[in-house]
Amino acid sequence: MAKRGDRDEDRSAFETAMRGVKPIKAPDTVRPKRPSERAIPQIPAEEAPVRFEIVRTGERTEATAPGIDRKHLRRLRAGRVAIETRIDLHGLHSVDARETVRRALVEAAEAGQRCALVVHGRGRHSQGDAVLKEALPVWLAEPPVGSLVMAFASATPADGGAGATYVLLRRRVVRKPG
Questions:
Q1: Strand order across the 149-154 sheet
Q2: Which of 75, 100, 150, 164 could form a disulfide with 80 if both were Cys (CB 3.0 to 4.6 A apart)?
Q3: CATH of 49-169 given 3.30.1540.20, 1.20.1250.20, 3.30.1370.110, 3.30.1330.10
């Protein structure tokens, strides 16, 4: 169940996103009937976003994918996993940052790397909220990245603190021929 603080944050994020939006005034608007459950196409599991178990404490965020042992998260949170690649998002707009994260994590997983450090900043030089920091958990859940991620956690102060996130990738599965 969502906590009250989470709902307030969601509401605040929605209001920020909708600031300046004006409703369309079309008197002849026709609203389509809602389709039945059977008519709604189902997203294949490999294409559906992963539902991470996310915990937010102040500025810090951490999460595990379903079925992942929390010992991985404890090691990640403590900075005890070797960083094999760094992804710096400073100065990027959200669309470019999202694509950069997607591309870099897919390449890292294909190369057999296990831990990435995503440097997104804390939003202190942005107008409004920390857009990249807040969007990162959503991007990490989206296909194809979501199926690659085991856990993620805000970095230790030595690696950027709340302005950076460790991302633990799954081990690469090597299929034997035959």
A1: 53-57, 60-64, 149-154, 164-169, 115-119, 85-88
A2: 75
A3: 3.30.1370.110
